[in-house]
Give the backbone structure.
Amino acid sequence: MNASLYNEDFFAGIHRVEDRSIDLVISDPPYGLGKDYGNDSDHLYGSDYVEFSRRWVDALLPKLKPGGSLYVFLSWQNSPEVFSLFKTRMQMINEIIWDRRVPSMGGSTRRFSSVHDNIGLFAMSKEYYFDLDSVRVPYDEQTKKARTRSIFVGKKWLEMGYNPKDMWSIARLHKQDPERADHPTQKPLELVERMVLASCPPGGLILDPFMGSGTVAVAALRHGRRVSGFELNPDYFSVIKKRVAEFGVINKSSFRSRESHRVAGATMPAGSE
Ligand SMILES: C[S@@+](CC[C@H](N)C(=O)[O-])C[C@H]1O[C@@H](n2cnc3c(N)ncnc32)[C@H](O)[C@@H]1O
C-alpha cells in the first residue's frame, strides 16, 4: 500500500501508524494565526500553541525510526518556543528560512513586512538519512563557463551543482497558479519535494499529520515514497484525493474517511513524474 490517508483527527488516528515505521515526518500544522480551516484548529495562541505542538510531537515520536527525521513549518511568532521544546527531544539539524518571494507592494507601516516562514529540521539521531546529491542546485551555464580554468575542470561539485543552503527562495502559490488547489495555506510542491528527496530514502514512509491539500502526499508519491496522513476537514480531504489522482504516481492507494473507513482503491497513471 503506497498511501494510507485518513479523513480523521490526527490525535485520534495516530495509533493506526506502526511504531518505528516512519522515515520522515513533514508537519505543516496550523500556525496559530486565526485562519479559517473550517474548524477552530488555528485558534491557539501563546502557551496553548506550545502545548498543542508538544502534544502532536509526543504522539508521533514513537512512530519514527531511529534514523528518521522531521520537518516542521512554523511562523516567527511561535518558532523560538517550539524549536526549544523540540530540541529537548531531538537533534536540531537546520533552521530553514522559506522566503515566499512576496512582491514589494505597500505592506506594514509599523514594522518590517514579514515574508518568510521558519522551518525546523530535526533528527532522531546522528545516523539520520540525508541525500544531498539528490537536491543539489545546478550551476547556470555562465558560472560553469567562468570556471573553465584548469583547476576547476572535472571538479565533481561543478557538475553536480551546489548545496541549496538554508535559505529557500521559492514563490508561494498565486491564485492563478495551475498547481493551486482550494486550500488557504497550500505549500508549493517544489519546496516539499526537496524535503522528500533529501530526507527520505526511496521506498521509505512519510507521515503528514496535517495534510491540508495533500502536498506532502503528492510529493511523496511522485518520487516513489510511501505516505500516511491525516486531515480533519472533509472538503480538503476531497481536494487531497483529487490531487493524488492527478499528480501522484501510485499503484494502489486507500482513502479512509472517519465515518465509514471506506477503502477506495485507485490505480493512477504510471510515469507521470
Ligand atoms: C497549514 S495547513 C496544511 C497545508 C498543507 N501543507 C498543504 O500544502 O496544503 C494545516 C491543516 O491541518 C488541518 N488540521 C488541523 N488540526 C488537525 C488535526 N488535529 N488532525 C488533522 N488535521 C488537522 C487543518 O484543517 C488544515 O487543513
Summary: The longest strand covers residues 64-74. The two ends are 19 Å apart (CA to CA). The pocket of S-adenosylmethionine is lined by residues 9-11, 28, 30, 37, 39, 41, 183, 185-187, 210, 212-213, 215, 230-233, 236 (CB under 6 Å). The beta strands are 3-7, 22-27, 64-74, 91-99, 116-123, 167-169, 205-208, 226-230, 253-257.
